[in-house]
Design brief:
The complex is a heterodimer of chains A (about 350) and B (about 200).
Chain A (H helix, E strand, L loop, with lengths): L1 H38 L15 H11 L10 H17 L18 H10 L1 H11 L3 H32 L4 H6 L14 H14 L11 H4 L9 H26 L13 H4 L5 H22 L5 H29 L6
Chain B lengths: L1 H22 L3 H21 L3 H25 L4 H6 L1 H26 L4 H6 L2 H4 L3 H11 L2 H22 L11 H6 L2 H4 L14
Helix pairs in contact in B: 1-2, 2-3
The chains are: A mainly alpha (about 350), B mainly alpha (about 200).
Membrane topology (chain A): Multi-pass membrane protein
Organism (chain A): Spiribacter salilacus
Enzyme class (chain A): translocase
């Protein structure tokens, strides 16, 4: 009986995390449209609700009402399975992410490994969607996405190895604890090259601009989800945005001190901001990264495919390997306030 | 109680998926069943408190190896009828191999005297208090450091060999030299031309 209660408690915690996450995804699309339109001197959505605030709900309703078209030559089972495989890892990885001091669903010792394992499974949804659609554009998009995600995963993994060396733990909460202190105590400073590599590969992992050749509208229509419509398409959309928020959350935990305030431990400013709960700081840091995503999209032209591969294999991976050696040197000499 | 239920659910899925790997007609379905096999066995390892092994299994096999497998299987145009042709002919040989493998496994298990009480000890909470990964790291870099480094060298050699096999320079290709592109200067690309301005009403 007590086990059942425990299970129910875990399910309640999951619901309490996933529902706000879906709301965040909905309003992320709104924020994206508003910010990009501001950058392009337009107004963006402004008809539904006050300043267009109900637009994401209208969009969700529209997608719900639409028909899910099954292409006649598609592999039915895999065609339906693919969106689920895309969203599952995007949600599962949230289990180990600490939102605040002790606010985490599963505080496990292998947290970082678990995150890597879960994010590495996201590629299945994309590949299967492309293959099951039985369409050349979808298959091309899936191939591009697959190759890109597999290559950038290596750089991303190496960048996170640097974090685990610096923190001396794979437990996400302990990684944050290792960064206790003001803004210059966080890992972004000693691990700056790894931070940059992580962020670039994070953008590439989520197939966002300037690395969105998987969807490249001007070349292959919409890439792997070209045959999807209605709610099936919406699930891919959800997965993409949930992944963006996840990558931002991970970046905040690994490099920007998770739930710590930027003035933590400072003489005057520290106590002044003590009343702000950690989860607020965490959300602000996530918002910073999400804004960067949008900013990139509005600023950079799409990378050419071979140059994406070159950047991943010949630039980012060597940078991480060199910096791993530097980090081990810093750990051994207990360099600065970080180690 | 719940742990037992979870174990049997996962074990059932594992066996069913393993059967599907060899019986599925579509090779992509086979590969995906293999993914499911890896995933469920990782879950079983997690239940045995071998969290590092379980997660590494997903990370390496599900996240990387099987993705490449799927790529290859999707690209191949496999004719299932041709694949099935030799089935009855190779059946006796396959059965023989299977019997030999089962015998070998039985011998290994019998020789090591494996009994289930050892597992109970492994899941002893006092023992599992220490960090799984830390323990593995300590053992790998002290007791087994030479075999470990040797395995790493073998893998590195395999990488270099694979790259060497594909690295064929063909003459006459229009390759971009990125370094040259980056190092280029204004003087190489831009030519300033002074022209007299044209007459306004000259048609």
């Amino acid at each position: 009986m007590s086990e059942l209660i425990e299970l129910a408690w875990i399910v309640a915690k999951i619901v309490a995390l996933v529902v706000p996450l879906f709301v965040a995804v909905a309003y992320m699309t709104y924020a994206e449209r508003k910010v990009i339109s501001a950058m392009q001197l337009r107004r963006g959505p402004n008809r539904v609700g006050w300043h267009g605030l109900l637009q994401p709900i209208a969009d969700a309703l529209k997608l719900l009402m639409k028909e899910v078209v099954l292409p006649s030559n598609a592999n039915r089972f895999l065609f339906v399975l693919a969106p689920m495989l895309a969203i599952m890892p995007a949600l599962a990885a949230w289990a180990v992410l600490p939102l605040g001091e002790g606010i985490v669903i599963a505080d496990i010792n292998a947290g970082l490994l678990y995150v890597l394992a879960m994010t590495s499974m996201g590629v299945y949804g994309i590949i299967l969607a492309g293959w099951a659609s039985n369409s050349k554009y979808a298959l091309l998009g899936a191939m591009r996405a697959g190759a890109q995600v597999v290559s950038y995963e290596i750089a991303m993994g190496f960048a996170l190895v640097g974090v685990l060396m610096a923190a001396g733990s794979l437990n996400m909460s302990e990684i944050v604890h290792a960064q206790a202190g003001p803004i210059w105590n966080w890992f972004w400073l000693p691990l700056l090259p790894l931070f940059v590599v992580y962020w670039i590969s994070g953008v590439a992992e989520t197939n966002r601009l300037p690395f969105d050749v998987a969807e490249g509208e001007s070349e292959i229509v919409a890439g792997f989800h070209v045959e999807y419509s209605g709610m099936a398409f919406a699930i891919f959309f959800l997965a993409e945005y949930a992944n963006m928020i996840l990558i931002s959350g991970l970046a905040a935990v690994m490099f920007l001190g998770g739930w710590y305030s930027p003035f933590h431990g400072l003489p005057v400013l520290g106590p002044m901001f003590d009343w702000v709960p950690g989860i607020i700081w965490f959300c602000l840091k996530i918002c910073l990264f999400l804004f960067l995503y949008i900013w990139f999209r509005a600023t950079f032209p799409r990378y050419r495919y071979d140059q994406i591969m070159r950047l991943g294999w010949k630039v980012l991976i060597p940078v991480t390997v060199v910096w791993l050696i530097v980090v081990s040197g810093m750990v051994l000499t207990e360099f600065g306030p970080w180690f | 109680m719940i742990e037992k239920v979870i174990f049997y659910v996962f074990a059932g899925i594992l066996l069913a998926a393993a059967l599907l790997v060899i019986t599925a007609r579509n090779p992509v379905h086979s590969a995906l069943s293999l993914v499911l096999v890896f995933f469920t066995s990782a879950a079983l390892w997690l239940m045995a408190e071998a969290e590092f092994l379980g997660i590494a299994l997903i990370l390496v096999y599900v996240g990387a190896v099987m993705v490449l497998f799927l790529f290859v299987v999707m690209m191949l145009d496999i004719n299932i009828a041709v694949m099935r042709e030799g089935f009855s002919r190779y059946l006796p040989l396959g059965a023989l191999v299977a019997v030999i493998m089962v015998l070998q496994m039985l011998l290994v298990i019998g020789a090591a005297g494996v009994d289930l009480s050892g597992f109970a000890e492994a899941t002893n909470p006092a023992l599992s208090e220490t960090n799984n990964i830390r323990m593995l790291g300590n053992v790998l870099y002290t007791v087994y450091v030479y075999p470990f480094e040797l395995a790493a060298m073998v893998l590195l050699l395999a990488i270099i060999a694979a790259i060497m096999l594909t690295l064929r320079r063909r003459g006459g290709t229009r390759h971009q030299d990125i370094n040259k592109q980056v190092r280029t200067t204004k003087a190489e690309r831009l030519r300033m031309v002074r022209m007299a301005s044209e007459q306004k009403n000259e048609q």
